[in-house]
Amino acid sequence: MRIRSTLLIYWLLLPGLILAQPSSLKQAQLVKVRAGLPHFFEKIKAKEKVRIGYLGGSITEASGGWRDQSLQWLQKQYPQATFTGINAGVGGTGSDLGVFRVEPQVLGLKPDLVFVEFAVNDQGKKPEQIYRAMEGIVRKIWRQNPTIDICFVYTLTADLAPYYQRQELPPAALAMEEIAEHYDVPGVCLGLEVARLAQEGKLIFKGKPEEHPQQLVFSADNVHPYPETGQALYTQALGAALRKLASVQKKERAFVMPAPFVADHWEAARMVPLDRLARHGSWQIIKPGTDSVAYLLRNRFSYLLKSTHPGDYLEVRMKGLACGLYDVVGPGCGSYEWQMDQQTPQLIPRFDSYATYYRSHFFVMPTPPEQAHVIRFRISGEKLNKADILSKRNQRMDDSRRFEENAGYAGQLLLVGDLIP
Prior knowledge:
- With 421 residues, the protein is α/β, with parallel strands linked by helices.
- It has 2 domains: 2-245, Rossmann fold, CATH 3.40.50.1110; 269-419, Galactose-binding domain-like (Jelly Rolls, Sandwich), CATH 2.60.120.
- It is built from 12 helices and 18 strands.
- A hairpin with a 5-residue loop joins strand 14 (335-340) and strand 15.
């Protein structure tokens, strides 16, 4: 392919990646080594089987991207060991869902190293939100096994490139670096070289490769990299960082969990099966073998609860920091009314301008932790103007029958706290 050969030409002509010296937290550098990944590299030296968890969004989930390529790089670099990967990437989601997913989708498979990639999907969130989730991820991993190494990696979009071109971290990545610094976790800027090439006119962020034979084309949409260019640059940056991280030796001392960075971190975040909730009304259990929506989302949920009847609700009795649902957004979805105790319900639409297809989604609402609460997720009778919502992205209803229902689909309870009787 022309795109692959173009990347090779530029890679041979350009100087190699230079590892930046330590500097202020805000400054972007290829790798901030900190405590390194000593347990990971110790297993490699011992010629053991090594499992790597990849927790992130669609950039991580993508087949043939940096996740797959980094496994191939490691296997070639260290042929004495055997590497397998855990794909825990979920498109369109950030660390605020990742903190719930890390236990069942990563830790349950016993990784030796976990890469955490949410810098793109967390962009625009308040630092406090990022602190809670990212700290929760770190503490959950080390609470289960302190010998699991962790590495934060920062990808980019075209909109974020100017930060890196100024050698600065974008706001979301900077918030993550504050957590990384507190816990001595390495951080790697996968997009630093991408931004430099764009600044020099050698790379464009959006386009068709065949229309730009003299430049690298990063992606088709400014966000999701082509495997042969953007993702390959990410992999090469990670490889350069791993070479540096390989030099860090393990410190022989008992592990002590650091004091929290923020008091309201989400270490207690967990997914709870819906069979532990009280169901009121005509909820149906739908499964991949018998329902088309459940089949489409079979890689996310083993089953879903579905209701199309306004007033039907799921009830949770809990105490903690937050409560929500891991659920579905799509053509036949409506809205929930989320109600805490006797307060006025809040409308949570499960249809948006991307809802021409079904995809997993989630919402989490804060709950005052000082007291117990009764939470209800009620199917709303309020009809959404779906045609108007779709028009915001110049989308149309291809078949009005697909959009007629106003259903709620629930997959897992998201809880930061505990259920109570």
